[in-house]
């Protein structure tokens, strides 16, 4: 499994949000798994770009 950078994920999500292409087409273009892309789209839709850049910490270790 290839690690996809957060900047690539944001670029893909913004393309999808702008209606440039379908979810499937964008996932294939960037090589992002279906579930991961759906999660990113949901986070972006609900909380915005900042939530993808700085996800909340669940535990202080």
Detailed description of the structure:
The protein is mainly α and 61 residues long. It is 64% helix and 0% strand. The chain has helices spanning 6-17, 23-30, 34-47, 49-53. Helix 1 (6-17) packs across helix 3 (34-47). The termini are far apart. The model has no long low-confidence stretch (mean pLDDT 89).
Which helices and strands appear, and what pairs or packs with what?
Blueprint: H1 6-17, H2 23-30, H3 34-47, H4 49-53
Helix pairs in contact: 1-2, 1-3
Describe, in short, the structure shown.
The protein has 4 helices and no strands. With 61 residues, the chain is an all-alpha fold.
Total of helices: 4
Shape: globular
Kindly state the number of beta strands.
0
Q: Structural class given helices, strands, pairing?
A: mainly alpha
Largest sheet: none
Distance from first to last alpha carbon? 27 Å
Radius of gyration: 12 Å
pLDDT below 50 for ≥5 consecutive residues: which ranges? Answer: none
Instruction: Please indicate the percent range of residues in DSSP E strands (runs of 2 or more).
Output: under 5%
Topology order in helix (H) and strand (E) letters: HHHH
Name the helicity range. 55-70%
């Amino acid at each position: 499994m290839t690690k996809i950078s957060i900047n690539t994920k944001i670029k893909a999500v913004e393309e999808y949000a702008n209606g440039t292409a379908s979810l499937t087409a964008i996932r294939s273009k960037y090589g992002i798994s279906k579930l991961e892309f759906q999660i990113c789209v949901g986070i972006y839709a609900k909380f915005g770009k900042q939530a993808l850049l700085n996800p909340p910490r669940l535990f202080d270790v």
